[in-house]
């Protein structure tokens, strides 16, 4: 192919087209540089001490938000699925509606203001920058609590529980139920650093959280988590640092070894199971067969997911799909995106903008793949019995992946101080039912205060 400009294209016309391309950001080194500018400001460490606690503030350049909207609007869409349900993945109509709102009406600046209204910090632990939100209660004798989010979540998941937990008297609870909250971003997530070497899995993260709490001056603390946050809590409980008072999890690891073996073999439920145990077995079997494709890919080939780093819609589709669409655990996300109950599944307090706040954070920080690597770094069954002896509280929400039976919980957590089944809520309980979630955390950890 000739490199020369055709005679029919005048020099003036060529310059005009080139100028328009630059104005649109196409092939423009300046535009590329603008969309890669830092989105956070971090205070300088005194004397070069990177382990110091440094304040963090978020400000995304407008050029990056414009680039996001442009990419959404120029998405190359596939054809519609050939089924009338979600069995082939996230439905085209759902993502098209999300894209319309995301590219026209959605306002990132609102969540940016909420982030900056909270005390955000960074400190280096074991060679990696860890971002965290730290909100101290005004109440004397508040319990220090580190709360860990999961995937595809972020610290944005926890926004609605901050005030109920730090300021319980405003919500009809006692001042004696107050917490000092520390809410970190997992390694490779949000504003935390992206590991450049292997090894940052649940075990190293749990140890880092203990270091973080000591950095903040807390001699004793409790830990809370759901999804991957629950995994980190369980690992921390197994490590049992002297400073750890106990844990509360809403994604418990209770499945006995013989049940894990039967599930892996694809066996029918053992005949000696109780009704609760049989129900849990069937839920786990269904999850293993239908809902684990995303985890298998991230656990084995996370680097292959280049599309979620290049396409906002590719990222959104990946973060929204748990292999179950209109049931659980993605039901609340689906209903939030549509702004109505889908198949009778409620989003609770979760809104479409809540979902987009989270997805946009992944996009702006380009952490789709670095977050996925956390699965690659995890080398055990997340639901297998935790086998821990530190005091543990469990909340089994009715729309969780599986309803952990009390009988299994008592075998897995040898010092079970609380077990409850709330009336509503699902996998993203802090998002969906923040008030009920806060009540569960207060009640679950109350025995530790004595």
TrEMBL record:
InterPro entries referenced in this protein's UniProt entry, alphabetically: AB_hydrolase_fold (IPR029058), Epox_hydrolase-like (IPR000639), Epoxide_hydro_N (IPR010497), Epoxide_hydrolase (IPR016292), TAT_signal (IPR006311)
Q: Where is the Epoxide hydrolase N-terminal domain?
A: 54-157
Keywords associated with the record: Aromatic hydrocarbons catabolism, Hydrolase, Signal
GO MF term set? hydrolase activity
Query: Is the keyword Hydrolase in the record?
Result: yes
| Endpoints of the signal sequence | 1-33
Can the keyword Ligase be found in this entry's annotation? no
Q: Into which family does the record put it?
A: Belongs to the peptidase S33 family.
What is this protein's record name? Answer: Alpha/beta fold hydrolase
Organism name: Paraburkholderia kirstenboschensis
């Amino acid at each position: 192919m000739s490199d020369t400009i055709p005679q029919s294209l005048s020099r003036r016309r060529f310059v005009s087209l080139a100028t328009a391309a630059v104005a649109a950001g196409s092939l423009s080194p300046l535009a590329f540089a603008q969309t890669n500018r830092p989105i956070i400001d971090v205070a300088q460490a005194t004397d070069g001490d990177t382990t110091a606690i440094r304040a963090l503030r978020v400000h995304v350049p407008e050029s990056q938000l414009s680039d996001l909207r442009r990419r959404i609007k120029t998405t190359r869409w596939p054809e519609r699925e050939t089924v009338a349900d979600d069995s082939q993945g996230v439905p085209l109509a759902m993502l098209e509606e999300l894209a319309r709102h995301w590219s026209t009406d959605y306002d990132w600046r609102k969540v940016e203001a909420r982030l900056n209204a909270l005390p955000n910090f960074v400190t280096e632990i074991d060679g990696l920058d860890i971002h965290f939100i730290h909100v101290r209660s005004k109440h004397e004798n508040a319990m220090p609590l580190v709360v860990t989010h999961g995937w595809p979540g972020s610290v944005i998941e926890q926004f609605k529980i901050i005030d109920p937990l730090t300021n319980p008297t405003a919500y009809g609870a006692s001042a004696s139920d107050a917490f000092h909250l520390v809410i970190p971003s997992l390694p490779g997530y949000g504003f935390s650093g992206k590991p450049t070497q292997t090894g940052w899995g649940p075990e190293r993260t749990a140890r880092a959280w203990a270091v973080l709490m000591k950095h903040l001056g807390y001699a004793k603390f409790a830990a809370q988590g759901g999804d991957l946050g629950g995994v980190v809590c369980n690992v921390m409980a197994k490590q049992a640092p002297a400073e750890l008072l106990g844990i509360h999890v809403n994604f418990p690891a209770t499945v006995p070894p013989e049940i894990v073996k039967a599930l892996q073999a694809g066996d029918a439920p053992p005949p000696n199971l109780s009704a609760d145990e049989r129900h849990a077995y069937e839920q786990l079997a269904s999850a293993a067969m239908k809902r684990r494709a995303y985890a298998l890919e991230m656990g084995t080939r996370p680097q292959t997911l280049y599309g979620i780093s290049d396409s906002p819609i590719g990222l959104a589709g990946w973060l929204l799909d748990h292999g179950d669409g209109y049931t659980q655990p993605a039901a609340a996300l689906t209903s939030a995106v549509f702004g109505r109950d889908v198949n009778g599944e409620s989003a609770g307090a979760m809104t479409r903008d809540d979902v987009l706040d989270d997805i946009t954070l992944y996009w702006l920080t380009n952490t789709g793949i670095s977050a996925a690597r956390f699965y690659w770094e995890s080398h055990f069954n997340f639901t297998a019995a935790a086998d821990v002896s530190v005091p543990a509280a469990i909340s089994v929400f009715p729309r969780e992946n599986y309803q952990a039976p009390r009988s299994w919980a008592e075998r897995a957590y040898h010092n079970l101080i609380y077990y409850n089944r709330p009336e509503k809520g699902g996998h993203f309980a802090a998002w969906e039912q923040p008030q009920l979630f806060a009540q569960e955390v207060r009640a679950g950890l109350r025995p530790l205060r004595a």
